[in-house]
Each structure stands twice: as structure tokens, then as C-alpha cells.
Automatic annotation (TrEMBL):
Residues 182-301 form the Glycosyl transferase family domain. It comes from Candidatus Allofournierella pullicola. One of its GO terms (molecular function) is hexosyltransferase activity. Residues 16-168 form the Glycosyltransferase subfamily 4-like N-terminal domain. This is Glycosyltransferase family 1 protein. It comes from the Bacteria.
Length: 373
């Protein structure tokens, strides 16, 4: 019997939190039973892997590129195509309202809206547009998913309690600290073993607060001149952050690594992870950092649900950069030799992606079967 095809609606297929979750699920789900296809507007590094795994990618212009009418017409063509998807799973936060409505109009019986954030991004006009579409979510979605309780509250309001919480899981053993990998990555980057390496993985957007991260590192670097800051990721604010690093005299100490597909190896090369985000749904990068046994200094704005191990210390964004720098140095004082992968703790807290994939597979199959009866 052919697998059930689930249409995942995303903005793009580049490196990011929800993209990592979807791909982790895709790799672990039984693709003889459930296959993923995608609606995406922006290209990304995952496309070759998706096609190799048997998925189709429907490219349509994003709402902000050619407007909602062009996007809607293109989405309608996909939804009414010969594939006739039984399940649509949207990861576009409040823009999911538009997806849910069009899927309902096209006769898709199972329509999942998935919240991955806790706050709108962009300017006032953009936020008003998102709020408009957000009001369409509850009337048209059949099922609600969120990465955390805070993400459910933000997007689903009075119906937040009805949402299924799908934690952003990983394969813990893939991130286990490895001394050989650490030496190799540091050699590739020209970093001595004695050099202190702070790190961050995330898109260059206002949400991730790279400007404050540079303030923190400026203090850390003054206290420990033999130090570097490794920044993995890309995004619209990268040139601005690079210019700020230059003005602070940190140009040679801040390494802009771009999008990376070897995050587990990078985490082994780091000594501390610094994550001062303004808001998050549930950042998978912090789950990965903990899986790598990497100490984390993180914003107190981040949900408790991601603080799975004692490796995480949360600090307020109103706390001086010097205190953040001191925390990073203190947290890493035990050295690389003391690091272990807390696989059992992650698994016990619900962050093993294999368990999540089995749950989601069963959910898809059960919902599809209900609509065949």
C-alpha cells in the first residue's frame, strides 16, 4: 500500500529551528507508511535530502514576495492537484490561518496548525497582517500542535490546552562530545586547544539578539584575550552584526561560519553556548547543546521546558553583559573532559526524536484512517 502523503507548509527549507525538527522527524519516520511533501517559497540546504528521501517540493511565491492573492492561487493549485493530500501540516505560525482556510476549501480533511514561536516578528504593519491571518487558525484547523506551552498560549489562546505539545527532539547520541572531532574542527578553524570558544547557532534576526551577544563577548574577550566567538547561521542582520564586530575591534575573534550541516561537530569544538534570545518557541539548538554536554548561558525569556539538564543557566536580558560573560567562563570551568551526553535525561523529558517520530506517525495514520471510515 502506498504511504500517506502529508503536505508540510513552510516558508523555506534552510537551516532553522522548525526546519531542523521537520527534517529530524522525516529521517526517523517510517517512510513506507508516511511520506512528506513540502510547499516552500525560499530554497534551502535540505532540498537535495528531501528529494533523496522521496519527497516532492512545490515552490510557490511567498506572501511578502508577490502578495497574498498570488500565494493563495499557487497554494490552491497544489491543494487541488492530483495528489489530493489527506493531511496538511502548516509550520508558518499565524500565516497558518491562511493555509488552514485554503486547505479546508480544497476539502483536505486533516489540517494541522503548528506553533513554533511565542511572538510576532517584523514591523508593525507586518505584525498586523500576521494577526489578521492568525484569527483564521482556530475556525479552520482541525488539530493544533505547538513546540511548548508558551507557543500554544501565544497562537491558540483560549484553545491552547487542546494543543498537542510536540517537543523539538534530537538523536542524543549524534551530539555526544568527541575529542577527535573537537581537534579536527578546531584545526580546520585555526583555533588552538587552549583557546576559549564561545558559540551560538541561529539565524541573524532581531529575535536572536546577536547585538547583545557581541556585547557579552566583548567583555569576555577583554577578560580572556585568547578567545573566539563562533557564529553559525545566516540571515538578514549578518552584515550589520559583522560591521558591529569590526567597530568593537573583534573582527579577528568573531568567526562567521555561515549555515552549517555539521552542528554536532561544531558543538564539540565549543566551550560554552551563549543564547540571549528575546523570545523563542522551544529552541532545538539548546536541546542539541545539552545533548553535546555543552554548558549554556541562556536568556530567561526562554521556556522552562527546554531547561532539561543542569547545563543551562538562565540570565535576564537586563543583567549586565559582564555578568553573562562571567557566567559563560564559570560554566565552562570544568573543561571538555568533564562533558557527557545526558541521553537518558533528554529521553526521559521527551526529547528523543525517535519517540516523537513514532508518536507523530501513529497520529497521522489514525487521523487518516478516521477520515476513510
Amino acid at each position: 500500500m502506498a504511504p500517506i502523503r502529508v503536505l508540510h507548509c513552510v516558508a523555506g527549507l534552510g537551516h532553522g529551528g522548525y526546519e531542523s525538527l521537520i527534517m529530524n522527524l522525516y529521517r526517523n519516520i517510517d517512510r513506507d507508511k508516511v511520506q512528506f511533501d513540502f510547499v516552500a517559497s525560499f530554497p534551502g540546504v535540505y532540498e537535495p535530502e528531501i528529494e533523496a528521501l522521496g519527497g516532492h517540493i512545490h515552490r510557490i511565491p511567498f506572501i511578502t514576495q508577490k502578495g497574498p492573492f498570488v500565494y493563495t492561487a499557487a497554494l490552491d493549485r497544489v491543494l487541488r492537484s492530483a495528489l489530493r493530500y489527506p493531511i496538511v501540516h502548516s509550520h508558518m505560525d499565524k500565516f497558518s490561518g491562511l493555509v488552514m482556510k485554503r486547505a479546508a476549501k480544497a476539502g483536505v480533511p486533516v489540517r494541522i496548525a503548528h506553533s513554533h514561536n511565542t511572538k510576532n516578528e517584523g514591523g508593525l504593519a507586518f505584525q498586523l497582517v500576521k494577526d489578521h491571518y492568525g484569527r483564521m487558525v482556530l475556525p479552520w484547523a482541525t488539530d493544533l500542535f505547538a513546540c511548548s506551552r508558551a507557543a500554544a498560549d501565544w497562537m491558540f489562546g483560549a484553545k491552547a490546552a487542546e494543543a498537542h505539545i510536540l517537543f523539538n527532539g534530537v538523536q542524543p547520541e549524534d551530539f555526544a562530545p568527541d575529542a577527535g572531532t573537537r581537534r579536527r574542527i578546531r584545526a580546520e578553524l585555526g583555533i588552538a586547544e587552549s583557546t576559549f570558544a564561545a558559540g551560538h547557532v541561529g539565524r541573524f534576526t532581531e529575535q536572536k539578539n546577536h547585538a547583545f551577544l557581541l556585547e557579552i563577548f566583548a567583555v569576555l574577550h577583554a577578560r580572556r584575550p585568547d578567545s573566539v566567538l563562533l557564529l553559525a547561521g545566516d540571515g538578514p542582520l549578518r552584515p550589520k552584526i559583522a560591521e558591529t564586530a569590526r567597530k568593537l575591534g573583534l573582527e579577528s575573534a568573531v568567526r562567521f561560519l555561515g549555515p552549517r550541516q555539521d552542528v554536532p561537530a561544531l558543538l564539540s569544538a565549543m566551550d560554552c553556548f551563549v543564547f540571549p534570545s528575546h523570545h523563542e518557541g522551544l529552541p532545538v539548538t539548546l536541546v542539541e547543546a545539552q545533548a553535546a554536554g555543552l554548558p549554556v548561558a541562556a536568556s530567561s525569556a526562554i521556556t522552562d521546558e527546554v531547561c532539561i539538564t543542569p547545563l543551562v543557566r538562565r540570565l535576564g536580558l537586563d543583567v549586565p553583559a559582564g555578568d553573562w560573560a562571567a557566567a559563560a567562563l564559570e560554566l565552562a570551568a570544568g573543561g571538555f573532559e568533564a562533558r557527557r551526553c545526558p541521553a537518558d535525561a533528554l529521553r526521559g523529558a521527551g526529547y528523543d526524536i525517535a519517540d516523537t517520530a513514532r508518536w507523530l506517525e501513529d497520529f497521522y495514520l489514525a487521523r487518516a484512517a478516521q477520515n476513510e471510515e
